[in-house]
Design brief:
With 249 residues, the chain is an alpha+beta fold. The chain has helices spanning 2-18, 92-97, 102-118, 123-128, 130-145, 164-205, 208-223, 236-243; strands spanning 19-22, 26-32, 35-40, 43-46, 52-58, 62-72, 78-89, 150-161. Strands 3-2-5 form a 3-stranded antiparallel sheet. Strands 6-7-8 form a 3-stranded antiparallel sheet, covered by helices on one side.
Length: 249
């Protein structure tokens, strides 16, 4: 009886080491006596017991968070920057045989590349041209990880932390810029107002009756205010037709 149990246990061990099942997003690098002989999967995989072993590799896209890095920009502004890197394994065999730990290696490379690239741009470019920086980071990382069977699909600078002093300086700069724009808009409005008044005065000067109507309209608008006593001059041109020439027939 003990012999049968031992056989069953031994058979179970052999069956477990012989039969593997891989999911659709997994690949298996098969090692035969320590030598890589190929990539298998997905599905049912049969291995030679005690001769072959398999290392699973996930081929889905990985979102790796890059830890905040202390960066000094080209114009000597210190800040902290972190990013997220999206990559996937496109060659499981190279990811196993060319690098010890492809995830750790990609993480370290992303950190050093982030510090190096961000130091090549002034602060204004870092804040405005972030797409350009993302593209540069993605190109550098993809070039260096290609030999490891890794494809970097996208890099995004996630957050930029500036010192409090720099934030206050930027706030003052933004406020000054808004005031400048307000003054420019006000000056442009005064120019347009003066042009329209000039056109109106020329029109009224050519038509005395129109000038009188405009004067009467102004009086109507002033009369709407009941809280003040208003004294206004009466132009003689308005009452002159009523006076006649002073001769009696």
């Amino acid at each position: 009886m003990e012999f049968i149990i031992a056989i069953l246990v031994f058979g179970g061990i052999i069956l477990t080491s012989m039969v593997k099942i891989l999911n659709d997003w997994e690949r298996g690098v098969v090692l035969r006596l320590g030598k890589a002989v190929g990539v298998r999967g997905p599905g049912l995989i049969l291995l030679i017991p005690f001769v072959e072993r398999m290392i699973k590799i996930d081929t889905r896209t990985v979102a790796m968070d890059v830890q905040p890095q202390d960066v000094i920009t080209k114009d000597n502004v210190s800040m902290q920057v972190n990013a997220v890197v999206y990559f996937k394994v496109v060659s499981p065999l190279e990811a196993i045989t060319k690098i010890e730990d492809y995830y750790f290696a990609t993480s370290q490379l992303a950190q050093t590349t982030l510090r190096s690239v961000m130091g090549q741009y002034p602060l204004d470019d870092v804040l405005v041209h972030r797409d350009k920086i993302n593209s540069a980071l993605q190109g550098i990382l993809d070039k260096h990880t290609e030999a490891w069977g890794i494809k970097v699909t996208m890099v995004e600078v996630k957050q930029i932390d500036l010192p409090k002093e720099m934030q206050r300086a930027m706030a003052r700069e933004a406020e000054a810029e808004r005031e400048r724009r307000a003054k420019v808009i006000s000056a442009e409005g005064e120019v347009q107002r003066a042009q329209k008044l000039q056109e109106a005065s020329l029109t009224l000067a050519g038509s005395p009756s129109a000038l009188q109507l405009a004067y009467m309209q102004t009086l109507t608008e002033i009369a709407g205010d009941k809280s003040n006593t208003i004294i206004f001059p009466l132009p003689l041109d308005i009452i002159k037709p009523l006076l006649g020439d002073g001769k009696q027939n």
